[in-house]
Design brief:
With 170 residues, this protein is an all-beta fold. The chain is built from one helix and eight strands. It has an eight-stranded antiparallel beta barrel with strand order 1-2-3-4-5-6-7-8. A hairpin with a 6-residue loop joins β2 and β3. The protein is globular. The N and C termini lie far apart (37 Å).
Amino acid sequence: MRSFRRIGAFGAGAVAAVALVTAAPLPASASAPADNGDALEFTLYAKEVPAPGADESGPPPAVGDTFTFADDLYKTKGGDKVGRDGVICAVVRTSGEQSDANCVGTFVLNGGPGGQLTAQALTTFDVSDQAPSAFDLAVTGGTGDFKNAHGFIRVTPDGDYERMEFHLTR
Protein backbone atom coordinates (compact mmCIF):
# COMPACT_ATOMS: atom_id res chain seq x y z
CA MET A 1 0.00 0.00 0.00
CA ARG A 2 2.97 2.32 0.55
CA SER A 3 3.70 2.53 -3.19
CA PHE A 4 0.04 3.41 -3.83
CA ARG A 5 0.32 6.49 -1.61
CA ARG A 6 3.79 7.48 -2.79
CA ILE A 7 3.02 7.17 -6.49
CA GLY A 8 3.36 10.85 -7.18
CA ALA A 9 5.73 12.79 -5.00
CA PHE A 10 3.94 15.64 -6.61
CA GLY A 11 5.02 16.70 -3.69
CA ALA A 12 5.52 15.13 -7.22
CA GLY A 13 3.86 15.57 -7.84
CA ALA A 14 1.03 18.53 -5.97
CA VAL A 15 -2.47 20.26 -5.49
CA ALA A 16 -3.68 23.66 -4.32
CA ALA A 17 -0.59 24.86 -2.47
CA VAL A 18 -0.06 28.47 -1.45
CA ALA A 19 2.79 30.70 -0.25
CA LEU A 20 6.01 29.33 1.22
CA VAL A 21 7.45 30.15 4.58
CA THR A 22 11.09 29.65 3.60
CA ALA A 23 13.23 31.87 1.46
CA ALA A 24 15.98 29.50 0.32
CA PRO A 25 16.90 29.88 -3.36
CA LEU A 26 17.01 26.91 -5.71
CA PRO A 27 20.36 25.44 -6.75
CA ALA A 28 22.61 27.68 -8.85
CA SER A 29 21.90 25.42 -11.84
CA ALA A 30 18.26 26.44 -11.52
CA SER A 31 18.77 30.12 -12.19
CA ALA A 32 15.89 31.87 -13.90
CA PRO A 33 16.04 31.45 -17.69
CA ALA A 34 15.93 34.33 -20.14
CA ASP A 35 12.59 35.16 -21.76
CA ASN A 36 13.72 33.58 -25.04
CA GLY A 37 12.51 30.03 -24.28
CA ASP A 38 15.72 28.79 -22.67
CA ALA A 39 15.63 25.47 -20.86
CA LEU A 40 15.45 25.37 -17.08
CA GLU A 41 16.65 22.16 -15.44
CA PHE A 42 17.13 21.40 -11.75
CA THR A 43 16.74 18.57 -9.27
CA LEU A 44 14.84 18.63 -5.97
CA TYR A 45 14.12 15.98 -3.36
CA ALA A 46 10.61 15.39 -2.03
CA LYS A 47 9.87 13.95 1.41
CA GLU A 48 6.30 13.09 2.32
CA VAL A 49 4.65 14.96 5.18
CA PRO A 50 2.55 12.28 6.90
CA ALA A 51 -1.09 13.16 7.41
CA PRO A 52 -2.29 12.88 11.02
CA GLY A 53 -3.88 9.47 11.56
CA ALA A 54 -2.85 8.17 8.12
CA ASP A 55 -3.31 4.43 7.78
CA GLU A 56 -1.40 2.70 5.00
CA SER A 57 -2.95 -0.70 5.65
CA GLY A 58 -6.24 -1.83 4.25
CA PRO A 59 -7.70 -3.38 1.12
CA PRO A 60 -6.17 -2.83 -2.33
CA PRO A 61 -7.36 0.25 -4.18
CA ALA A 62 -10.61 0.09 -6.14
CA VAL A 63 -11.76 2.16 -9.11
CA GLY A 64 -13.05 5.47 -7.78
CA ASP A 65 -10.81 5.52 -4.70
CA THR A 66 -8.94 8.77 -4.18
CA PHE A 67 -5.98 9.67 -2.05
CA THR A 68 -3.99 12.79 -1.29
CA PHE A 69 -0.51 13.50 -0.02
CA ALA A 70 1.89 16.38 0.49
CA ASP A 71 5.66 16.69 0.41
CA ASP A 72 8.28 19.17 1.49
CA LEU A 73 10.80 19.91 -1.27
CA TYR A 74 14.55 20.21 -0.64
CA LYS A 75 17.67 21.16 -2.62
CA THR A 76 19.40 18.04 -1.30
CA LYS A 77 18.31 15.17 0.93
CA GLY A 78 17.87 16.79 4.32
CA GLY A 79 19.12 20.14 2.94
CA ASP A 80 17.43 23.51 2.62
CA LYS A 81 13.67 23.45 2.15
CA VAL A 82 12.74 25.28 -1.07
CA GLY A 83 9.07 24.45 -1.44
CA ARG A 84 6.20 22.08 -0.99
CA ASP A 85 3.65 20.23 -3.04
CA GLY A 86 0.22 18.70 -2.76
CA VAL A 87 -1.26 15.87 -4.85
CA ILE A 88 -4.62 14.24 -5.41
CA CYS A 89 -4.98 10.93 -7.26
CA ALA A 90 -8.00 8.94 -8.41
CA VAL A 91 -7.84 5.23 -9.22
CA VAL A 92 -9.28 4.78 -12.72
CA ARG A 93 -8.46 1.11 -13.47
CA THR A 94 -7.41 -2.03 -11.60
CA SER A 95 -6.26 -5.41 -12.87
CA GLY A 96 -4.85 -7.94 -10.43
CA GLU A 97 -2.04 -6.27 -8.48
CA GLN A 98 -1.81 -3.30 -10.87
CA SER A 99 -3.75 -0.07 -10.73
CA ASP A 100 -3.84 3.10 -12.82
CA ALA A 101 -4.19 6.40 -10.99
CA ASN A 102 -4.78 9.80 -12.55
CA CYS A 103 -2.82 12.26 -10.40
CA VAL A 104 -2.76 16.05 -10.43
CA GLY A 105 -0.45 18.14 -8.30
CA THR A 106 0.90 21.61 -7.64
CA PHE A 107 4.46 22.50 -6.67
CA VAL A 108 5.19 25.76 -4.87
CA LEU A 109 8.83 26.86 -5.20
CA ASN A 110 10.46 29.80 -3.48
CA GLY A 111 13.61 31.69 -4.27
CA GLY A 112 15.18 32.00 -7.69
CA PRO A 113 13.10 31.00 -9.60
CA GLY A 114 9.84 31.11 -7.68
CA GLY A 115 6.18 30.45 -8.32
CA GLN A 116 3.91 27.47 -8.79
CA LEU A 117 4.00 24.59 -11.28
CA THR A 118 1.14 22.23 -12.04
CA ALA A 119 1.65 18.69 -13.33
CA GLN A 120 -0.31 15.53 -13.98
CA ALA A 121 0.14 11.90 -14.98
CA LEU A 122 -1.73 8.67 -15.51
CA THR A 123 0.53 6.25 -13.67
CA THR A 124 0.41 2.46 -13.47
CA PHE A 125 1.69 0.92 -10.26
CA ASP A 126 1.87 -2.46 -8.59
CA VAL A 127 0.20 -2.32 -5.16
CA SER A 128 2.48 -5.09 -3.85
CA ASP A 129 5.68 -3.28 -4.94
CA GLN A 130 7.35 -1.39 -2.11
CA ALA A 131 9.82 0.24 -4.54
CA PRO A 132 7.78 1.83 -7.33
CA SER A 133 9.55 2.55 -10.59
CA ALA A 134 10.37 5.99 -11.97
CA PHE A 135 7.73 7.91 -13.92
CA ASP A 136 7.27 11.25 -15.68
CA LEU A 137 4.80 14.03 -14.91
CA ALA A 138 3.66 16.39 -17.65
CA VAL A 139 4.00 20.04 -16.63
CA THR A 140 0.69 21.69 -17.51
CA GLY A 141 1.25 25.28 -16.41
CA GLY A 142 2.60 27.66 -13.84
CA THR A 143 2.72 31.07 -12.23
CA GLY A 144 5.45 33.58 -11.34
CA ASP A 145 8.77 32.64 -12.94
CA PHE A 146 7.02 29.55 -14.37
CA LYS A 147 4.17 31.46 -16.05
CA ASN A 148 4.71 29.90 -19.51
CA ALA A 149 6.40 26.70 -18.37
CA HIS A 150 5.96 23.34 -20.02
CA GLY A 151 7.99 20.16 -20.02
CA PHE A 152 8.19 17.24 -17.64
CA ILE A 153 9.35 16.14 -14.20
CA ARG A 154 11.08 12.75 -13.84
CA VAL A 155 10.26 11.23 -10.43
CA THR A 156 12.53 8.47 -9.11
CA PRO A 157 12.31 6.76 -5.69
CA ASP A 158 15.46 7.48 -3.66
CA GLY A 159 15.27 5.94 -0.18
CA ASP A 160 13.00 8.00 2.09
CA TYR A 161 12.88 10.70 -0.61
CA GLU A 162 11.91 10.97 -4.23
CA ARG A 163 14.33 12.61 -6.63
CA MET A 164 12.51 15.04 -8.92
CA GLU A 165 14.35 16.15 -12.07
CA PHE A 166 12.64 19.20 -13.58
CA HIS A 167 13.04 19.64 -17.38
CA LEU A 168 11.26 22.88 -18.28
CA THR A 169 11.07 25.43 -21.05
CA ARG A 170 9.20 28.72 -21.05
